[in-house]
């Protein structure tokens, strides 16, 4: 696919996906949604990519859904639904975004249905996704950071859920994922007030993993991503990511049994052999993902 609203590059086993509408603070559009999905699936399928970085061009990360699209939806309202009764399809029509059955019909990652929704599919991508939050992350932009695996923020980053101030609700699963990131009290605060918070407060409540200086932000993010991409088994990363997210729906016994099964398979893998060999031989690893 030829991209119009994102940039996609690969270097040192790291794919960098950049939202590229800087004049609109990278406001989200249906076309952008399709391009992001295509790029993430391309990164997942590329054996030369071990880690994905997700960021924005210019001074914003993502200002949420484009206000022009929201204005159009506010005028059309339910009249565009044409009798559609299914809630997910209705929202898809209003937003111009494909619904679940079109996201990954063959279920290529063997993901549970929870991780095949409109945006939660990021958690089914079998490679780490690092959100490099360089500026404002609002509404849908904030949701996209939450579906990434690790969140690094520039000291200039700002966050707001925004929905309550637009007459909307907790969209696209944020009511499930936000309390898990910041706790119930903080989640209710951020959703009810829709207030703007800075990077320092985001770090204090656990919304982001780390805050970095603006001047060296992307340099530090890429250094972290490159170290992970070159020093860690991609096979381990993919399996652990699936373990962590599926454990949200498992008992301790179920998680332990599945871990035991995966451990046995790991002991037979080439990456395990390489993990031991490079340590004993005191050399950099050459993991293949097998």
Q: Which shape, going by the Cα principal axes?
A: globular
CATH level-1 class of the largest domain: Alpha Beta
> What would you say the CATH architecture of the largest domain is?
Alpha-Beta Complex
Rg is 20 Å
CATH-defined superfamily of the largest domain: 2-enoyl-CoA Hydratase, Chain A, domain 1
> Would you tell me the structural class of the helices and strands?
alpha/beta
Number of helices: 12
Helix content: 40-55%
Distance between the termini: 28 Å
Q: Can you give the mean pLDDT?
A: 89
Query: At the third CATH level, what is the topology name of the largest domain?
Result: 2-enoyl-CoA Hydratase, Chain A, domain 1
Strand order of the largest sheet: 1-2-3-5-7-10
Order of helices and strands: EEHEEHHHEEHEEHHEHEHHHH
* Relative strand content: 5-15%
Summed up, the domain count is 2
């Amino acid at each position: 696919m030829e991209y119009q609203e994102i940039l996609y590059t690969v270097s040192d086993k790291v794919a960098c996906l950049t939202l590229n509408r800087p004049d609109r603070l990278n406001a989200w559009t249906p076309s952008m949604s399709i391009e992001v999905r295509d790029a993430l699936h391309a990164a997942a399928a590329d054996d030369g990519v071990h880690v994905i970085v997700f960021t924005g061009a210019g001074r914003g990360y993502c200002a949420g859904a484009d206000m022009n699209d929201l204005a159009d939806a506010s005028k059309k309202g339910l009249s565009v639904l044409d009798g559609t009764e299914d809630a997910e399809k209705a929202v898809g029509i209003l937003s111009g975004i494909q619904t679940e059955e079109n996201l990954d019909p063959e279920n290529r990652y063997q993901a549970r249905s929870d991780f095949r929704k409109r945006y939660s599919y990021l958690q089914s991508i079998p490679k780490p996704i690092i959100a490099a939050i360089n500026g404002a992350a609002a509404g849908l932009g904030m949701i996209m950071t939450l579906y990434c695996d690790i969140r690094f923020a520039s000291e200039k980053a700002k966050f707001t859920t925004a929905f309550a101030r637009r007459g909307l609700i907790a969209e696209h699963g944020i009511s499930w994922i936000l309390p898990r990131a910041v706790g119930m009290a903080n989640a209710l605060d951020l959703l009810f007030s829709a207030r703007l918070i800075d990077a320092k407060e985001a770090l204090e409540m656990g919304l982001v993993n780390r805050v970095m200086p603006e001047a060296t932000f992307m340099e530090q993010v890429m250094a972290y991503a490159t170290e992970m991409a070159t020093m860690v088994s991609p096979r381990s990363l993919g399996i652990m990511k699936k373990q962590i997210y599926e454990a949200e729906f498992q008992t301790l016994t179920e998680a332990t049994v599945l871990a035991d099964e995966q451990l046995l398979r790991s002991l037979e893998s080439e990456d395990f052999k390489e993990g031991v060999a490079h340590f004993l031989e005191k050399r950099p690893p050459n993991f293949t993902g097998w």
